[in-house]
Design a protein that fits this description.
Strand content: under 5%
Largest sheet: 4 strands, mixed
Shape: globular
Order of helices and strands: HHHHHHHHHHHHHEHHHEHEE
Number of domains: 2
């Protein structure tokens, strides 16, 4: 929560440019932070969201600081794969700059001067524990079919509350309306990126976060425009309509912000509810033998908390496959959801990888199969997780 409010303050200071009422900036900040974090929990994606905002702010308002962006990308590449989105945004910005220069005389020296921050930013991303192999893995993930089975890469989920869905559509509509009505004010590269990520967000909820973070700047200016327009309008009926509509809109979006930032957000950030922290404590006190069979979305947490145990699967493995072309993630989902029909597959993993215990959830089909059909012993249980030992 402390980091979230710190991030909110950074975004507020970043957006604070102009002479609009303070409520406009506070509202934009609250919306941009809370709605962009609705698929974020305690993981490096939080920092990636902040880096994305810093990048776009630098390209829009602080061009003299572009030369420092390679430092940002060095840190970013060592924290989260979203740095590739950052390079894409930076690349679009530089491409549009070069096209603008074509209207004037352009030579090799001016081209190098224009592109060196981008080229250096790209090169420093290879300075990581995996070197250039990091890029190979990320390129393999571009057309990875199993990603479609992961919740955050699916279209906007209607398992979300009606209020949340409505707020997301409203803020997206405000961003698009603001981009269109202020198209002469903003740069073409920025408007193209808003349109591009809007299209992607219709296919994957992951990009809704990116759209909202990038669109925070146009959203802020559009709210300023609406406020000034309403203030200048003399017609009584228009004023009355605005006075009636504005509080409703502000109330709806603000309530949704509070819901995500405080209520939903705290759930995602509490280890007891989101991650198996108590089970991890039990493992540290009672180290089991053999390797671990774990739940996919706990992988990163287990790497952090139990580095002495190799995870069976985690977020890095979405694109991993055998020479035959078979994806490991698909095998995992088959074992998890239908272990009875995939007994040979499960046994092959248990034998080949010397799996001796499992850290999963009790509501999984795999739990029922292992305890009832294979007589695995349950040694620990809480509301979030169970630990099973192989017989």
């Amino acid at each position: 929560m402390l980091f979230s409010f710190s991030l909110m303050y950074v975004i507020y200071k970043t957006l604070l440019k102009g002479s609009a009422p303070i409520i406009v900036y506070l509202l934009t900040t609250a919306l941009s932070v809370s709605l962009s974090l609705f698929i974020v929990s305690v993981r490096p994606l939080l920092f990636s969201t902040a880096f994305l905002l810093i990048l776009v702010s630098t390209l829009l308002y602080h061009k003299k600081k572009i030369k420092y962006l390679p430092i940002l990308f060095f840190v970013w590449a060592n924290m989260h794969a979203d740095f590739t989105l950052g390079l894409f945004i930076f690349g679009v910005y530089k491409l549009m700059s070069i096209l603008e220069q074509r209207k004037r005389h352009i030579n090799l020296n001016s081209l190098i001067k224009t592109t060196w921050p981008l080229l250096l930013s790209f090169m420093v991303t290879a300075i990581n524990p995996f070197g250039i192999n990091l890029w190979r893995t990320l390129l393999n993930e571009i057309n990875t079919n199993p990603l479609q089975s992961i919740a955050e890469f699916k279209p906007l989920s209607y398992n979300l509350s009606l209020l949340t869905i409505l707020a997301i559509h409203i803020i997206t509509g405000l961003i698009l309306a603001g981009a269109y009505m202020q198209r002469k004010k903003f740069y073409m590269w920025y408007l193209l990126l808003i349109l591009f990520f809007f299209v992607l967000s219709s296919r994957s909820i992951y990009f809704e976060r990116v759209l909202i973070v990038i669109g925070a700047f146009v959203l802020k200016d559009f709210l300023v425009y609406l406020h000034q327009t309403a203030s200048n309008i003399q017609a009584k009926h228009v004023n009355k309509a605005w006075q009636a509509l504005a509080p409703v809109l502000v109330a709806l979006l603000t309530i949704t912000s509070i819901e995500h930032l405080i209520i939903t957000g705290t759930y995602n950030w509490e280890e007891d509810k989101m991650y198996p922290n108590k089970a991890v404590d039990y493992v540290k006190r009672n180290p089991p033998e053999g390797k671990m069979l774990n739940r996919y979305d706990w992988g990163g947490y287990l790497i952090w908390q139990l580095p002495e145990y190799k995870t069976f699967i985690d977020g890095r493995m979405a694109s991993w496959r055998y020479d035959s072309g078979k994806y490991i993630l698909i095998d995992y989902f088959n074992i998890l959801t239908n272990p009875k029909e995939n007994q040979e597959l499960l046994d092959s993993y248990i034998d080949n990888y010397n799996i001796g215990w499992a850290l999963i959830s009790k509501d999984f089909e795999l739990y029922t199969f292992l305890t009832e059909q294979r007589s695995w012993q349950e040694t620990y249980q809480d509301n979030n997780s169970v630990i099973l030992l192989k017989n």
